[in-house]
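Retro notes
What went well: the complex prediction finally ran end to end.
Inputs used:
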Amino acid sequence: MNLKDEFEQLTGAENKAQWLRKMANWIRLSAMSMTHHAKLGHTGGDLSSADILATLYLGQILNVIPEEPRWEERDRFVMSKGHCSGAFYSTLAARGFFPVEQLKTFMDPLSMLNGHPDRNKLPGVEANTGPLGHGLPIAVGIALAARMRSQGWRVFVLVGDGELQEGSNWEAAMCAQHYELDNLVVIVDRNRIQQGDFTENTIRMEPLANRWEAFGFAVKELDGHDHLALLQAFSSVPLESGKPTCFIANTVKGRGASFAENKPAWHHGVPTREQLEIAQRELGLEAAW
Amino acid sequence: MVSPVITETSESQKPQLFDCRDAYSKALEQMAEQNSRVCVVINDSLSSAKMKDFKTKHPARFINVGIAEQNMVGVGNGLANGGMIPYLCGASCFLTARAMEQVKVDLAYSKANVRICGMSSGMAYGQLGPTHHSVEDIAWTRILPNLTVIVPADDVETAAVMQYSLRHEGPMFIRISRIPVPRVHREDYEFRLGKAVKLRNGSDVTIITNGVLVSRALEAAQLLSEQGKSTRVLNMSTIKPLDEEAIVDAARTTKAIVTAEEGLAAGGLGGAVAEVLALRHPTPMRILGLQDVFAPTGSAEFLLDHFKLTATGMRDAALELIGKGG
């Protein structure tokens, strides 16, 4: 039985949330195994975004067909914070876009699993991201294309909070408002840490919700680790007709591994074998490899 | 060989001049009628991009992102992801320089089916100065893998390139001037990607150029013939993929190469030709263009003359290489 069927056979929101929690923890350990073996990666953001990714892909929010990754009418997901490829690739593999076994090639020579995603190499990737501030403009274009072609697909884009310091995001936000793109959903992984320091010590992001509201988005803040809340929120878009949606998902960078939680050094820290073992005990699952 | 139209004009009659933007915008309107996937994105400049009629005829396929070039290029990628064929139309200086990382990542690296129509390139903005000149765009764009780079020479070639672009897979940069130019191609001209157009054959020297300078190169060839020198003129409208064979053949069958471009001499057309010749057939060369300087104040015509991007400038460069004797 594949994970899609498994999820769909669950009854009751709490059961679904519990299952998603387990899947998100699998994504966490998979991502940590990848970064541990590659000795490169962005563990902190992998761990903060795992619940959001699990809910979108494994909670069947996104209307996608893994066997037909370029199916024209699919919902699009743009991973703007492309550096969190460990969590993103693990999610895509779990959803069936490519074999889970392939995750072991992460950053190997000539691997399809580049440090940052490449849509021309890996099925399921919509956009080549990595440099910050690219995903939202691309998502706006995808939303505009749906309108031009009278298509019903939606586009979800996951952005980092520090990433919002790039001005291109706000160019795109103005555009989304002007064209009333209510088929666009921005999710901010609000883990409050960027590469060098806490966001509020670097360039203050608050009042972040007010900023998105001022740019014409329908905004909702939620706990980015609460699968029930995420499922409900993602199932209720658009929040307002005629307005793009913004979810500010409050998260903890490094969530799930006590040694990494809320520590700026874990932006691109990678776990040792011992830390991987600590994480598997804390998450209650076996490490992927 | 294609005979140039320009030389057929009698001396008493000044050749008719064409703004290539008219040809490009008319072509886009026709293409949008033929193909429902064609759409246009502009960054505020409706009239300088000559898109007023397109907007009226195809309002649902016309997006104005405002003064926001980074978003503009990203939006282009997204439109292509959604199955559209977007044409991003705006001043070349902003589209390339301001959005260069997006051009690299969202278009070239992503192999997105997006066309950038870089308007008013080179020194077309004249007195507005180096902020508005786009003399760097060829050097910047031609080094990017996957990105096709084309500089049409006149209205006929501009329309032909636009029509070709509908069939092209992958991203393109099309550099479209606003400096009025005489027509150098016949109306039945067919654009072939990656093929230099031999507008005049010759055996002593070859002038390789493109864009607004092609007609001047033909005049230079005429001046050289008055001095008994036989000049080949290649319109190298496709900078990438570059027609290496035409370059090597010119080097083998003529004695020297002069390149001329409306832009920086470093890294552009001349640089591309020099790269080929250095490896395959080292040949005496002159590279005409801006020699590591920004332009002073002056009209576009003044600046072309100032930097010797003229018939006499090209003639003199050729004579320096091959000598005046016969």
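What we learned: The longest helix of chain A spans residues 13-38.
What to try next: split runs per interface for comparison.
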